[in-house]
Amino acid sequence: MILQVNESVHSLTVGEVLKLLGLKDTPHKITIIIQPLSSEMETTKIDPLFQQTSETDMLLVSSDNVGFYCKSSVLAYNIGFFSDYETIDQAMGEDCRSSTDNNDIDKDNEKITVRELPSATSAGLKLVLLVLSKQTDPPATLHEFLQRTYVEADLLDALCPALAVADAYDIPMILDRLSEVHADEPFMLLSLSLFGM
Q1: pLDDT recorded at residue 18
Q2: Is 95 exposed, middle or buried (0-12, 13-18, 19+ CB in 10 A)?
Q3: Per-residue pLDDT tens over the stretch 155-176
Q4: What is the pTM of this model?
């Protein structure tokens, strides 16, 4: 058994640890290893293209601890995984939600809803969110935007993780939109068809 504590806890007696574990009077031999939480688990780096713009933004955290602020309404409209979010949020009411939701954090007296996406890498999630942010733009405009944002090799590196994110979180329009944007590029279309299988 591994008991993780944050670094602010300096020491616990064996009796206090056993009491925390609910094993106050146990005749069994127990080995307890106490390890500090890794700093990687505690810090989230916010992607510079996805800074918080309003108090209704939701913070999505990728598997590699990169955060992306997004409008919850955009997420609910475009991502199957979040499709019921606004309905559930309104039905629960603010008081109930704030007292029961452990994924909310209080930053400068402002409630921020945090959702960890363990199946999403930052490279894949970033490409998906960029495509969603430009979904009403004509394909040529999105193509220019992606060319300014990525060098071609980085775009190719993000492609497979983005399609994995789209599959894991029910975002069917990503493959279609990227195929539409890269319609004149045979190599990208081939890559999309291979990754999108």
Answers
A1: 65
A2: exposed
A3: 888 988 999 999 899 898 888 8
A4: 0.66
Average pLDDT of the segment spanning 42-66: 89
Model confidence band, residue 79 (pLDDT cutoffs 50, 70, 90): confident
Give the N- to C-terminal CA distance of the chain in Å, as an integer. 41
Q: According to the model, what pLDDT value does residue 43 have?
A: 75
CB atoms within 10 A of CB 159: 22
Q: φ and ψ at 19, to 5 degrees? A: -65, -40
Contacts of 28 (CB under 8 A, 6+ apart): none
Q: With contact defined as beta carbons under 8 Å apart, do 65 and 40 qualify? A: yes
Burial of 44 (0-12, 13-18, 19+ CB in 10 A): middle
Distance CA 72, CA 85 (A): 8
For residue 181, which of 125, 137, 118, 119 has the smallest C-alpha distance?
137
* Joined tokens for residue 74: 């955009």
Closest Cα to residue 3, out of 15, 17, 13, 16? Answer: 17
Could you tell me if residue 172 is left (phi over 0), alpha (psi between -120 and 50 degrees) or otherwise beta?
alpha
